[in-house]
Specification:
Layout lengths: L1 H10 L1 H8 L3 H28 L2 H21 L3 H29 L5 H27 L2 E2 L2 E2 H23 L3 H8 L5 H8 L6 H16 L2 H19 L3 H8 L3 H32 L4 H23 L7 H15 L2 H12 L6 H16 L2 H12 L14 H13 L2 H10 L3 H23 L1
Antiparallel strand pairs: 1-2
Helix pairs in contact: 1-6, 1-7, 3-5, 3-10, 3-17, 3-18, 4-5, 4-7, 5-6, 5-17, 6-7, 6-13, 6-16, 8-9, 11-17, 11-18, 11-20, 11-21, 12-13, 12-19, 13-14, 13-15, 13-16, 14-15, 14-16, 14-19, 14-20, 18-19
Protein name: MFS transporter
GO molecular function: transmembrane transporter activity
Membrane topology: Multi-pass membrane protein
Length: 447
């Protein structure tokens, strides 16, 4: 549901552009606002998880984004949409780091890539559903209401339902682990399960200690740096729907193309996680890094071929379909093969949510500039003119301008992202061993 919600607005950019007389840069600012607020708010998830059960936090974030999604569908002004997109980013900021640490605690080191891959696979399936639903509903009316608004309200209702199910049925892995331990470790049980009597000062002190510990980890610093750069192309891809419709594809064709790309990403993220798990058993300190560099590098030729080589015409439908699917298979490995599993191995268990939260904070904040930059480059540098666009028939000059803006924000960042992983061949081993020593020392002290 989270990924379905993320895909709603980009899937109806054309309709939102018409409803609020907004150009590509304006639409880019909507994505920027949500991602920027999400990035700034992500550390809050790390603080909350130190003192509360994760299912309650996941449910709270889900209710928050459900409310904001419904409000976007009911908005009648561009500024209203912008405000509720910011609230949407706040809800996602609470959910995503808590969910990532939840997965990290549920899998062992040797299978964590598969765990993150499965999460990504299911998320991408949800993203396909949300994108297809919004794109198909966008061109219709229901009970006199525009279809894109109905899609937002429907998705908000389903999200709220999922929030209730999480609250009622999900059990935090920490409870299971703690229940299985000896009574001699009751101090850890008290630390994790009985935070109700903790003072505000002690809570903030624990949070500050966790923040400092996470920020000092070199592996974290390098992965965040590559993530800031590597997230730029993915943020820019929100314009794919609008680009295909400018070329002349109808709603259904556009939805099919983007679904093929999403299916490729879903399968690729899962397969990449599995390959990295196997490779890490042979090369424990470098296998995941190799997988990540391969995936990032493949973004360069695929971006160039998709946006530059293929003729921008509806007759290129088959070529676009095959390219998008294979591209999705190859460029979607990083998070599941390397970033998520490696984070879990370089910090103590209690700091896992904090490291995922700060990763989202830095990546989300800085990469959020990609969407408005695509719009600005398309309009100011490559000649995109929103006044001359005819969405019903397509607009070849505007499609070409938008594709050039997209290529600028995809090919180069993919290459830089690949290079940024290189220091991890030396640093990850040291950080991983340091984390193991810290855990061993703590266990010895408790005994």
């Amino acid at each position: 549901m989270e990924r379905a919600d993320e895909n709603l607005l980009p899937s109806v950019y054309k309709e939102v552009s018409e409803a609020f007389n907004a150009g590509p840069s304006d639409l880019g600012y909507l994505t920027f606002i949500r991602n920027f607020v999400q990035g700034l708010s992500s550390p809050l998830a790390g603080i909350l998880v130190l003192n509360h059960d994760r299912p309650a936090i996941l449910a709270m974030g889900t209710f928050c984004w459900a409310l904001s999604t419904a409000a976007v569908g009911a908005s009648h002004g561009f500024l209203q949409v912008a405000f509720w997109r910011a609230v949407n980013g706040f809800g996602l900021a609470i959910v995503i780091p808590a969910l990532q640490s939840f997965i990290a605690d549920s899998y062992s080191d040797g299978s964590r890539g598969a765990g993150f891959g499965l999460l990504s696979l299911i998320g991408n399936i949800g993203g396909i559903g949300g994108g297809v639903l919004a794109t198909i509903m966008a061109g219709q009316q229901f009970w006199g209401i525009e279809g894109w608004r109905c899609a937002f309200i429907l998705m908000a209702t389903l999200s709220a339902l999922i929030g209730f199910l999480v609250l009622l049925f999900v059990v935090d892995p920490r409870k299971i682990i703690i229940t299985a331990r000896d009574v001699s470790e009751s101090s850890d049980r008290d630390e994790l399960m009985d935070k109700s009597n903790a003072s505000a000062a002690s809570i903030w002190m624990d949070s500050w200690t966790a923040m400092k510990a996470v920020m000092k980890v070199k592996t974290f610093q390098i992965i965040v740096l590559q993530g800031i750069i590597g997230s730029l192309p993915w943020t820019a891809m929100v314009f794919f729907t609008m680009w295909f419709e400018l070329i002349g594809f109808d709603h259904n064709s556009t939805a099919t193309l983007l679904s093929l790309f999403a299916i490729g990403c879903a399968m690729g993220s899962f397969i990449g996680g599995l390959i990295a798990d196997k490779l890490s058993q042979i090369y424990p300190h470098s296998g995941r890094v190799m997988c990540a560099q391969f995936s990032a590098f493949m973004g360069i030729p695929f971006s160039w071929f998709l946006l530059k080589v293929i003729p921008q015409s509806v007759s290129s439908y088959t070529t676009y379909s095959g390219t998008l699917f294979i591209m999705g298979l190859c460029i979607s490995w990083n998070a599941t093969a390397a970033n998520g599993p490696m984070f879990a191995e370089v910090v103590p268990v209690k700091h896992r949510t904090m490291i995922y939260a700060f990763d989202r904070a830095f990546e989300g904040s800085f990469s959020s500039v990609a969407a408005p930059l695509v719009g600005i480059l398309s309009e100011k540098l490559f000649g995109y003119d929103s006044k001359s666009v005819d969405f019903a028939k397509g607009s070849a000059p505007e499609a070409l301008a938008l594709s050039r803006g997209l290529l600028s924000m995809m090919a180069l960042p993919f290459g830089l992202c690949c290079l940024c992983y290189t220091p991890l061949y030396y640093i990850f081993k040291r950080d991983r061993e340091s984390a193991k020593i810290l855990s061993a020392v703590k266990e010895a002290e408790m005994i």
